[in-house]
Amino acid sequence: MKTSAKVVKSRPLTDRQRKFVQLKTTWPYPSSAKAARLAGYSESVARKADAVIASSPAVRLALARAEEQERERTSDVDRKRQQVQRAILSKLFRGR
User: What span, in angstroms and rounded, lies between the C-alpha atoms of 14 and 45?
Assistant: First the structure.
């Protein structure tokens, strides 16, 4: 039986990769090169960080998961903000 999709078993993230992902997904979002430098990569690797670091399947997966968590967190904050706005508006217009 042939499968069209390759199943890639990725290695766990190294400390530098973990730091790179953390920096790339935390405000203020730095460039890949700056995140690589701050994570401890050499200048030559930092200059081509997207090609070298972010091309790793483990890093891509970690970045995707972090982005999904950020979307979920943002939607939760937006929901709470809307609830507060509705409560304020209902109090304002209740007195009329």
Answer: 15
How much is the pTM? 0.68
Work out the number of other CB atoms within 10 angstroms of the CB of residue 19: 17
Evaluate whether 63 touches 35 at the Cβ level (below 8 Å). no
Return the domain boundaries, the chain: 15-94
Per-residue pLDDT tens over the stretch 31-48: 999 999 999 999 999 999
DSSP state of 27: S
Locate 41 and state its tokens.
């990569």
| CB distance 59 to 53 below 8 Å | yes
